[in-house]
Amino acid sequence: MHDPVMEPMETTISAPHETEILDPRTDSPSVPADPVHISPVRLGPITVPTPVVLSPMAGVTNWPFRVLCEEYGPEGLYVAEMITARALVARNPKALRLCRFAPQERVRSLQLYGVNPSIVEQAARIVVDEHMADHVDLNFGCPVPKVTRRGGGSALPWKTDLFAEILRRVVKVCDAADIPVTAKIRVGIDHEHETFLEAGHIAQEEGCRAVTLHARTTAEYYGGHSDWSRIGELKSALDIPVFGNGDIWGAEDALAMIRQTGCDGVAIGRGCQGRPWLFANIRNAFEGRPERLNPNLGEVCDVIWRHAGLLTQFYDGDERMAVHDLRKHIAWYLKGFPVGGSTRKAFMECESLADVRREIDRLDPTVEYPERVIDKPRGRVRFAKKVHLPYGWLDSRVTTHEERETLFGDDPMDASY
């Protein structure tokens, strides 16, 4: 007997390094900068006086980090990390924790992710009925394989019917409560399968109040430099506000993006990891002031300590969970400082606030912020080797009945974290 032929479970694209875009800060001739005019952005009932957005980042933008960024920054939008719709509908405890906001947050911005329109709609209804948020963002930009292989994140706009249906359902639920809906997208799956212009038009037609474009494809992941020209293309094509995202490492980058693209505002992701004061620098830049904050090690340690205390509140007094969460942030906070491998290792082994305090007190507070890391890239910069998609995903721009049955199956992993 012959073994049955196994059908492939997914489609993968082995993409070379797509981008040929170089870093404009180092590869363009120096020319005098034109002044930048920045206006408030209106999202339905919400006015964003200074159009700066803290982009949702998994494991990073819980409310303690948002509070730090907002304390430094202008009156922008500081968005919670992505909430999986199925997990929220299942009342997963971690999902519910991530939906929490601090009392001092001016606008409660929540990002939802999902593939099944019915489940995403149910999650949006929970947000509305339980008064969880003032603004809902929908994630169609995540490039990580565990998301795209299920048809989610940056893979989803390829299926225009599914993309439009999710937007339509969520906007209908949120409009009834006067809650604006926005969408985060990428340029496309790769340069052979670009979706951003069509997705932008669909988002506008379905009632989204703004779109954020991360100017890379899924295949480019976080590699190279994002192609800001695509942000300009989208801005020219739409009537709703467009926020630009990608490679804003300092205040001057934010100004340059607006100057080059005409976008309505900027969204900050990896650039603020370990640098919540980046928002102070962007605020100053947008207000035309030259002051830039680059704190010394003592001032950075004050931020670390405050962050530790806020995380302890977030975890309902559980210091061990708080300190474990803090570890990745400490690595970012100390980036570039001459503190030594043994000190970094000691921080990574902390189990309590007392441990963190002990290690902080061992550092020299007078050490200046290292110039070599000021406004420089941080976080993930690698390329994706492959793009993982559901099997046959690229065969058609609309979903088949069979695809929907596969995508919308009850996968218990969708409700877990």
UniProtKB/TrEMBL annotation:
Pfam families documented for this protein: Dus
Cofactor field: FMN
Every DUS-like FMN-binding domain range: 54-357
Region called Disordered, residue ranges: 1-32
UniProt feature, compositional bias: Basic and acidic residues: 17-26
High-level lineage: Bacteria, Bacillati, Actinomycetota, Actinomycetes, Bifidobacteriales
Domain of life of the native organism: Bacteria
InterPro entries: Aldolase_TIM, DUS-like_FMN-bd, DusB-like, tRNA-dHydroUridine_Synthase_C, tRNA_hU_synthase_CS
Organism of origin: Bifidobacterium simiarum
Secretion signal, residue range per the UniProt entry: none
UniProt keyword annotations, A-Z: Flavoprotein, FMN, NADP, Oxidoreductase, tRNA processing
A Gene Ontology molecular function term of the record: flavin adenine dinucleotide binding
The protein's name in its UniProt record: tRNA dihydrouridine synthase DusB
